[in-house]
């Protein structure tokens, strides 16, 4: 059984505590995340999902509770938070806004350089990371600002990968992209996870995006995980998800409609492929 890489123990977070503007963004959250898991954190705006992941590399400090990375409390006074941030890499929403170097290659090299690695290792890591995100070589020496939206997104993700973090957090990595761009980026993240086996945490408000890729979904609402399980387990609660302002994948609705219409289909299908097989099986 894989070991827990991150543990949240009764974590709460309040914005502006003790003032008239106090807001509880996380409410007594306890979770464990295993090495190598591919997790989707889902929730509507204001559900606490971004606040949750920003605790995992110490960007935000919990008002109450503890967070452990590989068994060590990150709030211990002699804990190296800088080292934690190279181990738990964060790709923010619109990460291309963080691109700043004169070439794509230099931008990707920046993280390893900051880690104090020698130039040979920096270059090796930049090549590896750009290869993983599938950015064509002709763009390596281009200015990051000449790239398309999807290409910029890949370059920004490569910049985090080059630091070889054990955990990669992607906060709405498909925001603002067209459907093809979205599929490309999610497919790339999925391939990368299969190749490297890192722990990947993908934050999104779209069930459709996440259903096809992740092994586990954590649904946040009002600062708490309301559901936590495999996509199949979580989507059986599609009526409750709707009440939270979230939609299950379209496949879930189609299968439930077919069942209501009298077909004996397996309604737990979460992908188009599974739905096709379930429908064919019911017609035999």
Give a topology summary:
Blueprint: E1 4-15, E2 23-34, E3 38-42, H1 49-55, E4 64-69, E5 72-73, H2 81-87, E6 88-91, H3 104-114, H4 119-132, H5 149-161, E7 167-171, H6 179-196, E8 199-204, H7 207-211, E9 216-221, E10 224-229, H8 231-235, H9 238-243, H10 250-260, H11 272-283
Parallel strand pairs: 3-8, 3-9, 6-7, 7-8
Antiparallel strand pairs: 1-2, 1-4, 4-5, 9-10
Helix pairs in contact: 3-4, 3-5, 4-5, 5-6
Please describe what this structure looks like:
This protein has a six-stranded mixed β-sheet, sandwiched between helices. Strand 7 (167-171), helix 6 and strand 8 form a beta-alpha-beta unit. It is of the alpha/beta class and 284 residues long. Helix content is 38%, strand content 23%. Helix 3 runs parallel beside helix 5 (149-161) and helix 4 (119-132) crosses helix 5. The protein has eleven helices and ten strands. 39% of the residues are buried.
In a few lines, what is going on in this structure?
This protein is an alpha/beta fold. The protein has 11 helices and 10 strands.
């Amino acid at each position: 059984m894989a070991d827990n890489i991150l543990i949240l123990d009764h974590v709460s977070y309040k914005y502006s505590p003790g003032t008239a503007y106090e807001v509880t963004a996380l409410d007594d959250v306890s979770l464990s995340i295993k090495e190598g898991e591919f997790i989707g954190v889902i929730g509507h705006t204001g559900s606490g999902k971004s606040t949750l992941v920003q605790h995992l590399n110490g960007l935000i400090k919990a008002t109450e509770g503890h967070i452990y990375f590989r068994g060590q409390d990150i709030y211990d006074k002699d804990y190296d938070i800088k080292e934690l941030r190279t181990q738990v890499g964060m790709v923010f929403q619109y990460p291309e806004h963080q691109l700043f170097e004169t070439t794509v290659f230099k931008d990707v090299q920046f993280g390893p350089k900051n880690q104090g690695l020698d130039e040979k290792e920096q270059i090796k890591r930049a090549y590896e990371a750009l290869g993983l995100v599938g950015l064509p070589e002709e763009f390596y020496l281009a200015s990051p600002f000449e790239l398309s939206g999807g290409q910029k997104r890949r370059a920004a993700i490569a910049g985090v990968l080059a630091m070889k973090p054990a955990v990669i957090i992607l906060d709405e990595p498909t925001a603002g992209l067209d459907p093809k761009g979205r599929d490309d980026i999610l497919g790339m993240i999925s391939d990368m996870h299969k190749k490297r086996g890192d722990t990947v945490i993908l934050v999104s408000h779209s069930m459709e995006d996440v259903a096809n890729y992740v092994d586990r979904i954590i649904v946040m609402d009002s600062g708490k995980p309301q559901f936590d399980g495999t996509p199949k387990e979580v989507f059986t609660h599609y009526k409750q998800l709707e009440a939270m302002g979230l939609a299950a994948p379209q496949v879930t609705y189609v299968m439930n409609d077919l069942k209501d219409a009298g077909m004996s289909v397996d309604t737990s299908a979460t992908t188009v492929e599974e739905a096709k097989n379930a429908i064919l099986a019911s017609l035999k």
